[in-house]
Design brief:
474 residues; seven-stranded mixed β-sheet; mainly beta; Immunoglobulin-like; 32 strands; nine-stranded mixed β-sheet; disordered N terminus; single chain
Length: 474
């Protein structure tokens, strides 16, 4: 063997190892940067309440987290079951003091719909804290059968998980499913399980491993209104003369079991049962100061509607021209005016702030597919700033021309999908506006009237005759 040959082989082998490490470096970097599930966090106790009394699925989980490690913990992770995150409409987490926790989406390998939750106070070693988690899911109840006759009951199925889906070990867990009826066709039986009136109780279960799933199916009668707002166009027009006009164009659809066979008006009027899957009417809540209320459908006024003044709001009962069965739809326009001093404020800086709801109440347990809110600002506004209560898509601004506007008004266009009643929150719009612009229209009207009078005077004094009349002699 030549001298130094062994040294050359060692150097060559080391070079190959360096090349391999350089090749794997990006992969190692990604793995090291991805969030790691903390094995020291344990769900000491989980209590779930699954509310299936309406067309929405409302899940409230009370979680007692325990830190079994030696170091304090500042955050934990939430992971949705596969295929469940797409139906989520609303989510909120609160700590023991009822303060909201910050939730940010993260990417964890092999898992989708994962979130990082930051604790308001660090969780020290050996300590526990209680977290309240509330979910609201839409389109989570499936009519089964999918079509029924006019006299049949509406049955739906709920698909879920017997256990609380978590990346952490759960020491003890129990669940209660609240139904809208005692008529239960079938339900998953994982012992211990019991039925009391219209409530199904699961558990308590012990020592549940992370990511444990057990299919849960509940088939029961649910005649609550399965009414969905497929499209809602909300128009807010601001006037510094003391009025704010609101108009909503609403399209609704009954998403329950479709009507099979013909509809009999005679049988429907004879049926006096209040527990029916059709929708005869529903109630809308308006602000207490609303006035000049109007409502009409494509054929004109809905004459059977009623307005009732309550202490803190106005109750408007809307009754469509025909009862709504599964697959049937309707549309109407609702408008009203409110005094601007209750929603429009002047700030110490001299700017103006409009605080109004991005979405308002349509009916109880509502589900809105698509919402578009347009806000028509006063003439001549500048430096417009917006503050959203949650993530909203802002479309490109538009220009609107109203009566006697010499220039157009700026229109803020906002869009949001998959909303529920919990999304009824305030939108803040701050802008600069000069008070002298209030006299823009009166001055424009005065100029137009002056020009008109001047034109009339000139017209009267002019003589357009071809022959001058001869003066007659006495």
């Amino acid at each position: 063997m030549p001298p130094h040959s062994h040294h050359k082989e060692s150097v060559g082998g080391l070079g190959k190892m360096v090349k391999i490490l350089l090749t794997l470096l990006p992969i190692l970097t990604v793995v090291s940067c991805s969030p790691i599930i903390n094995p020291n966090i344990v769900n000491k106790h989980v209590e779930r309440i699954i509310d299936l009394t309406s067309q929405l699925v409302k899940i409230t989980s009370t979680i007692t987290l325990e830190n079994t490690g030696k170091e304090s913990v500042n955050n934990f992770h939430l992971i949705f079951e596969p295929g469940q995150g797409g139906n989520l409409s609303y989510r909120i987490l609160k700590d023991t003091a009822k303060d909201e926790l910050r939730v940010t989406p993260v990417k964890i390998e092999n898992y989708k719909d994962t979130f990082n939750v930051k604790l308001n106070q660090p969780l020290n070693s050996g300590k526990t804290t209680t977290i309240t988690l509330e979910y609201i899911f839409t389109n989570a109840l499936v009519p089964y059968p999918s079509s029924i006759t006019q006299k049949e009951r509406q049955l739906v199925r709920y698909f879920g998980n017997v256990y609380f889906y978590s990346p952490y070990k759960t020491v003890k867990q129990s669940s209660s499913i609240i139904l809208s009826s005692r008529n239960i066709e079938s339900y998953t039986k994982v012992k211990p399980v019991s039925v009391s009136d219209s409530t199904i109780n699961y558990g308590p279960y012990s020592e549940i491993k992370p990511f444990t799933t057990e299919s849960l199916v509940v088939h029961y009668e649910n005649n609550s209104p399965f009414l969905r707002v497929t499209k809602l166009d909300r128009l807010i027009e601001i006037s510094h003369w003391g009025n704010i006009a609101v108009q909503e164009d609403i399209e609704i659809l009954h998403t329950g079991a479709k009507l099979q066979g013909p509809f009999s008006r005679y049988d429907y009027q004879r049926d006096t049962s209040s527990n029916h899957h059709s929708i005869k009417s529903y109630k809308t809540i308006l602000p207490a100061a609303a006035h000049s209320i109007y409502y009409r459908d494509s054929n004109g006024n809905i004459s059977t509607s009623q307005v009732r003044a309550r202490k803190d709001w106005i109750e408007l009962e809307l009754r469509p021209r025909f009862p709504l069965f599964g697959g049937w739809k309707s549309s109407y326009t609702l408008g009203y005016s409110i005094p601007s001093y209750q929603y429009l404020y002047k700030m110490p800086s001299g700017s103006y702030m409009l605080r109004m709801r991005l979405l308002d109440h349509v009916f109880d347990d509502m589900h809105v597919d698509q919402l578009e809110t347009n806000v028509v600002l006063p003439l001549g506004v500048t430096n417009v700033q917006l503050k959203f209560p949650y993530s909203v898509d802002r479309l490109s601004d538009d220009i609107a021309h109203k009566y006697l506007d010499s220039v157009g008004r700026q229109v803020i266009r906002l869009k949001k999908s998959n909303l529920v009643e919990q999304h009824i929150q305030d939108l803040d719009i701050v802008y600069d506006w000069q008070p002298f612009l209030l006299f823009h229209k009166p001055i424009l009207i005065a100029i137009c009237l002056y020009a008109l009078f001047l034109l009339v005077i000139v017209y009267v004094r002019l003589d357009f005759s071809i022959h001058k009349p001869e003066n007659k002699k006495d």
